[in-house]
């Protein structure tokens, strides 16, 4: 099989080493001679593994003791509902900082359970994170929600907002484990696993303990963080395979310099690709303001105004070289290079070379 370089936005590339480990373990989990997929979630090997993965998350992100680490079914989207269901009861209102389609979706879901205050004026062009002095925060909000990295628009926070004591809730689906940050500045951190930490179907949530025990009475048990925390994330049959993959990916992160190592690589890869765009004399353009450029998802256009035929040609040429899943999201068009943790610097170099060659061939 040809070697492909997968720049997909998610489900995204897994570290190659992890495939090798999984191949060997697929029919023999922890010496049991059966696969994890056929094993009771209450068996000793699984219960042990479940706690080991929690400990791994705690180590990698330096999670303080007063936070619970949860594995929750239903991916990131289920958490869009779980957040208001678990947190809205205090004041019945919440602040949403909408910087792209994902935070917009989260805000729309929250509206089903309480009042949502949009902190920023509505827009359909997400290319920046306005300065905090322009935010319309409600001091009475139960929480403030942000999306730390907008996967579709490539807009990433490079600072932790000051929410004046109101709990900060962050969707880190597409940048968790790619940069160091102070967990204690957040009330809740959550994300679907299928970009940087594994495969679809599970969300990781890190919840400060004082935010438990306040779910709305209508909150389904499965969405209730408190019930899940009490059950150590084995309230029902969990998405065991997705949690298993998460464990193996996180071990790989730990072996490769931890989150600091990932951050260093992410910065190098992002500098390389944005560098090509910035040096292209307008042949390539990145719509996002420099201060909000994502190190995980690099959306860009070709030509000014964007030339869709040339973009198609770019994608065709990329496929021919086995550089795959580079098409921009249908909502924004153009090209999007996702350079998550599992994408190596060498792979980013292959893409960078292709971008340069393409420009040389087609720029007038
Ligand atoms: N949040 C962000 C930033 C995402 O990129 C995605 C999916 O791509 C989601 C939430 C939704 O996650 P899921 O598909 O696991 O529900």
Automatic annotation (TrEMBL):
It catalyses: 4-(phosphooxy)-L-threonine + 2-oxoglutarate = (R)-3-hydroxy-2-oxo-4-phosphooxybutanoate + L-glutamate; O-phospho-L-serine + 2-oxoglutarate = 3-phosphooxypyruvate + L-glutamate. GO terms for molecular function: O-phospho-L-serine:2-oxoglutarate aminotransferase activity; pyridoxal phosphate binding. GO terms for biological process: L-serine biosynthetic process. Residues 5-350 form the Aminotransferase class V domain. Its EC number is 2.6.1.52. Signal peptide: none annotated. This is Phosphoserine aminotransferase. Gene3D superfamilies: Aspartate Aminotransferase, domain 1, Type I PLP-dependent aspartate aminotransferase-like (Major domain). InterPro entries: Aminotrans_V_dom, Aminotrans_V_PyrdxlP_BS, Pser_aminoTfrase, PyrdxlP-dep_Trfase, PyrdxlP-dep_Trfase_major, PyrdxlP-dep_Trfase_small. Pfam families: Aminotran_5. PROSITE patterns: AA_TRANSFER_CLASS_5. Belongs to the class-V pyridoxal-phosphate-dependent aminotransferase family. SerC subfamily.
């Amino acid at each position: 099989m040809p070697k492909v370089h997968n720049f997909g936005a998610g489900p995204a590339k897994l570290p190659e080493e992890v495939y090798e480990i999984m191949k060997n373990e697929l029919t023999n989990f922890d010496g049991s001679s059966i696969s994890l997929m056929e094993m009771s979630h209450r068996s000793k090997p699984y219960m042990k593994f479940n706690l080991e993965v929690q400990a791994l998350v705690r180590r990698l992100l330096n999670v303080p003791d007063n936070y619970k680490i949860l594995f929750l079914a239903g991916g990131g989207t289920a958490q869009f509902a779980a957040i208001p269901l678990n947190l809205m009861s205090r004041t019945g209102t919440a602040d949403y900082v909408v910087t792209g389609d994902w935070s917009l979706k989260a805000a729309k879901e929250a509206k089903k359970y309480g009042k949502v205050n949009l902190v920023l004026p509505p827009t359909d062009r997400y290319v920046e994170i306005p300065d905090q002095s322009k935010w319309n925060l409600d001091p009475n909000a139960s929480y403030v929600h942000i999306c730390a990295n907008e996967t579709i628009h490539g807009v990433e926070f490079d600072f932790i907002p000051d929410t004046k004591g109101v709990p900060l809730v962050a969707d880190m689906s597409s940048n968790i484990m790619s940069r160091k940050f102070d967990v204690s500045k957040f009330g809740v951190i959550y994300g679907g696993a299928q970009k940087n930490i594994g495969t679809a179907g599970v969300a990781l949530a890190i919840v400060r303990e004082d935010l438990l025990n306040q779910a709305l009475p209508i909150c389904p048990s499965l969405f209730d963080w408190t019930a899940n925390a009490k059950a150590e994330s084995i309230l029902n049959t969990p998405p065991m395979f997705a949690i298993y993959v998460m464990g193996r990916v996180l071990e790989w992160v730990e072996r490769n310099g931890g989150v600091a190592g990932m951050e260093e690589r992410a910065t190098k890869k992002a500098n390389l690709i944005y560098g090509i765009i910035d040096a292209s004399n307008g042949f390539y353009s990145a719509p996002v303001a420099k201060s909000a450029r994502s190190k995980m998802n690099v959306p860009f256009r070709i030509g000014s105004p964007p030339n869709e035929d040339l973009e198609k040609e770019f994608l065709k040429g990329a496929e021919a070289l086995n550089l795959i899943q580079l098409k921009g999201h249908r909502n924004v068009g153009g090209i999007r290079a996702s350079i998550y943790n599992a994408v190596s610097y060498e792979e980013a170099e292959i893409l960078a070379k292709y971008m340069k060659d393409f420009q040389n061939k087609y720029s007038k």
